[in-house]
Design goal:
Layout: H1 3-10, H2 44-48, H3 53-67, E1 71-79, E2 82-88, H4 92-99, H5 106-120, E3 122-128, E4 139-143, E5 148-152, E6 159-166, E7 169-173, E8 178-182, E9 184-185, E10 188-192, H6 195-198, H7 200-218, E11 225-229, H8 235-249, E12 265-269, H9 274-277, H10 279-294, H11 298-301, H12 310-339, E13 348-352, H13 360-370, H14 380-388, E14 399-400, E15 407-409, E16 419-421, E17 424-426, H15 429-450, H16 454-473, H17 477-518, H18 532-561, H19 570-605, H20 609-651, E18 656-660, E19 678-680, E20 691-693, E21 699-701, E22 719-722
Antiparallel strand pairs: 1-2, 1-13, 3-4, 3-8, 5-6, 6-7, 9-10, 11-12, 14-15, 16-17, 18-19, 18-22, 20-21
Helix pairs in contact: 3-5, 3-10, 7-10, 12-15, 17-18, 17-20, 18-19, 18-20, 19-20
């Protein structure tokens, strides 16, 4: 076997002379590297990385067709033994599937759903805002399948939840929070299998052929050769000869040049040409296999080797729509009818407009037969309504034996008992609602047989929880001193992160202020020299991730303390962002006020630009020092306490909270009297506009925001503790 044959065999290819089709050894040498010798399917992450070449073309073709689909909603009404279906054009379900969320459209949701299914066999919709199997989502978010894992559980639970891990941060969702579309995998009841995962070996082979073909041209339109000499040469001479020869003649830019070798040396080819290897046929075969797996006709992708006529194109469109797109839509709609629609009622069913184009030839033949002379089976108006969606005409309600004969009579009235969409009949919606009830009933029955006496267990758990809460109630102020120190140690590292973010903004801001100042004339220094809105936005972007991480971790800690869990919901995220906005706005307004005061005083004194620049630099020295540290300490405690309160509020067992002051001599005259003050969990200690009178008689205006929890003032180090705790 030649060196070329060995090279080809190593990547699963062979020359045309040896085989008619490419063979795969199962070892991928391509950069893609999908195929796995163990026989197990490739990971979702690798499958998502395959969104290129023919895979991209096929997935996009399918996803675009799915995205164009319009959903239709019907309300089911009972009439004796018949179901009457009434189409609904306005409904929250349709709004949800069309609006999806503030950042995406219904088109994008359907496009990504189709893409994820083809690549990984799974598409996960997060039903935002749901609290159980019956509540209605506020929005839909599609999760990247490469980051999500199903958490299996024994029957009757089956699925415990879904783990979503991005950048090392894990979020776990309840089964009712995720709508899981999947292409069923016979080997895995929990996750689906995508087309890419099933044909990874084919994709690798196609990539290998493409890579090999590219290397042919990169290496000089030849796969390689050997230089031989009549006399022995040293290693050094061999290296010099090979290097010189390659530099002069290797590479596509040096192709076809005349080569000159030293006396006694000659060049021999050891490779086959692309024609010998028949790369063109090889890649066409692999392309056809990949397209076949996706069930996408070549005409759909514009890759037919010859011009196609209209009949061929229409046939391809019909087959693609009927055999590829329609089954996928059926599956998606069935998932929606089973797991989403019942949340809105038991008398609704979702359908879709059929993507299959009408067969005009068959339609006209059917119409001719229906209205044919002597054998008519429908009236003109029925034909107009069914075939052309046209309004009735006068005298068109009667079925005629022929156009020269008397009418047979008007058709009898018949209620519509099925949903018809271009000839497709759907099942009644009550089936989906019954399925949901049946699944719930089945799970309950299994649970009762597997865990008899479950009510006693739940009662015992409640007693244990109440005992735990009673222990929390009995904690003394000294006990909370330990808790406060733990809280302090958890949140303090975030002070440095916030201070660093503030100083980063200060640096960029200072450079811009001094530049703008230098562009002014000595006689007319413009004020302000700072784009406040710009830097408010910059600081928001810098601190929001820090605030969110601190809030999430501190809320989780507070929830665990009382034996509950915390959810970082959309309203909570919005509240965190508002907190960042308020801090950023306040901080930058103070900076602008300081700069404006310096410029105004400098103009009164007739100071030079250099003097003004020095004074502004001093402002930023203070900002990088005391102000950055102070705002970082204040906001760290504000976010930490807000997170604690929110977690306890979500628990619904903490009814009231108590103000807790740091146990040291640094407690200020304002916070000292607050120690031990109790408020309802839904209330605030103070509202914006209130005035606090300290133990020394001094007054403190609450002018930043409402005080739902500490801090009361800048640099405040106070904390909160639960007071009234109850499971009632």
């Amino acid at each position: 076997m030649s060196i070329i044959d060995k090279a080809l065999n190593a990547i699963g290819l062979t020359k045309k002379a040896n085989a008619d089709i490419p063979l795969s050894s199962g070892v991928s040498q391509s950069g893609f590297g999908l195929f796995n010798l163990s026989g197990t399917k490739i990971s979702a992450a690798k499958a998502m990385g395959a969104y290129n070449a023919w895979t991209y073309a096929c997935v996009r073709a399918i996803a675009e067709e799915l995205a164009k689909t319009h959903f239709k909603l019907y309300k089911v009404k009972k009439d004796k033994d018949k179901n009457i279906y009434e189409e609904i054009s306005e409904h929250p379900i349709l709004d949800l599937l069309d609006g999806v969320n503030p950042y995406q459209t219904g088109y994008e949701l359907k496009y990504l759903t189709g893409s994820h299914l083809e690549l990984t066999g799974n598409s996960y919709w997060l039903l935002d805002g749901v609290t159980d199997e019956k509540s209605q989502p506020k929005a839909l978010y599609i999760l990247n399948p490469k980051y999500i894992k199903v958490i299996p559980a024994p029957l009757p639970e089956f699925i415990k939840g879904y783990s979503y891990i991005v950048d090392g941060v894990e979020k776990t969702y309840k089964p009712y929070e995720i709508l899981h579309h999947k292409y069923p995998d016979p080997n895995n009841p929990y996750e689906g299998i995508g087309t890419v995962q099933a044909i990874a070996e084919w994709i690798d082979a196609d990539n290998a052929a493409t890579t090999m073909n590219g290397k042919y041209f990169t290496n000089g339109a030849r796969l390689g050769g050997i230089i031989t000499a009549e006399t022995a040469i040293t290693d050094g001479q061999m290296k010099v000869m090979r290097s010189s020869f390659e530099s002069l003649y290797k590479g596509k830019n040096n192709a076809y040049q005349v080569g000159i070798l030293p006396k006694g040396a000659k060049y021999e080819e050891t490779s086959a040409t692309p024609k010998d290897m028949d790369f063109s046929t090889l890649q066409q075969v692999m392309r056809d296999k990949i397209l076949g797996a996706f069930r996408v006709p070549k005409t759909i992708l514009g890759t037919a080797e010859s011009e196609t006529n209209r009949a061929t194109a229409e046939t391809a469109n019909y087959i693609f729509s009927e055999r590829t797109i329609k089954p996928k839509l059926e599956q998606i709609v069935q998932y929606l009818n089973e797991f989403l629609v019942p949340r809105y009622g038991d008398d609704l069913v979702l359908d879709f407009e059929s993507p299959t184009p009408a067969d005009r030839v068959a339609l006209m033949a059917e119409l001719t037969a229906a209205l044919g002379t002597g054998q008519a089976s429908m009236s003109v108006n029925e034909a107009r309504a069914q075939f052309f969606d046209l309004p009735p005409i006068s005298n068109g309600d009667e079925v005629m034996t022929s156009f020269n004969s008397v009418p047979l009579g008007a058709p009898e009235k018949k209620e519509n008992t099925s949903i018809s969409s271009k000839g497709t009949t759907k099942r009644p919606s009550v089936r989906y609602a019954k399925n949901a009830k049946a699944r719930k009933s089945m799970a309950t029955d299994i649970a009762e047989r597997i865990a008899k006496g479950i009510d006693d267990i739940q009662t015992k758990e409640k007693e244990i929880k109440e005992t735990s809460l009673n222990k929390i109630k009995s904690l003394t102020k000294e006990d909370y001193s330990v808790m406060y120190k733990a809280f302090f140690n958890r949140v303090t590292p975030y002070e440095k992160l916030i201070a660093t973010a503030v100083r980063k903004m200060n640096k960029d801001q200072k450079e811009e202020v001094l530049k703008n100042l230098g562009d002014n004339s000595k006689a007319n220094i413009k004020s302000p020299v700072l784009d406040t809105a710009k830097y408010v936005s910059v600081l928001i972007d810098l601190v929001t991730p820090i605030f969110t991480d601190l809030f999430s971790k501190e809320a989780d800690s507070a929830a665990k303390f009382i034996g509950t869990t915390f959810t970082l919901s959309k309203p909570v995220q919005d509240a965190i962002k508002r907190s960042a906005e308020l801090m950023s706005q306040s901080y930058n307004e103070t900076t602008v006020a300081d700069i404006t005061a310096v410029i105004s005083q400098a103009q009164l004194e007739g100071a030079s630009l250099d003097q003004v620049s020095d004074r502004i630099s001093q402002i930023y020295e203070v900002a990088d020092g005391m102000r950055a540290d102070r705002v970082a300490r204040t906001e760290t405690f504000r976010v930490g306490n807000d997170a604690t309160k929110e977690a306890w509020k979500q628990s619904e067992v903490v009814k009231t909270i108590k103000w807790y002051t740091a146990e040291d001599e640094a407690v200020c005259p304002y916070c000292g009297p607050e120690d031990g003050k109790v408020i309802d969990i839904e209330s605030d200690f103070y509202s914006k506009g209130d005035t606090v009178v300290g133990s020394d008689g001094q007054e403190l205006a609450i002018d930043y925001s409402d005080v739902g929890a500490p801090p009361l003032h800048v640099n405040c180090r106070c904390y909160i503790r639960p007071e009234d705790i109850s499971t009632d």
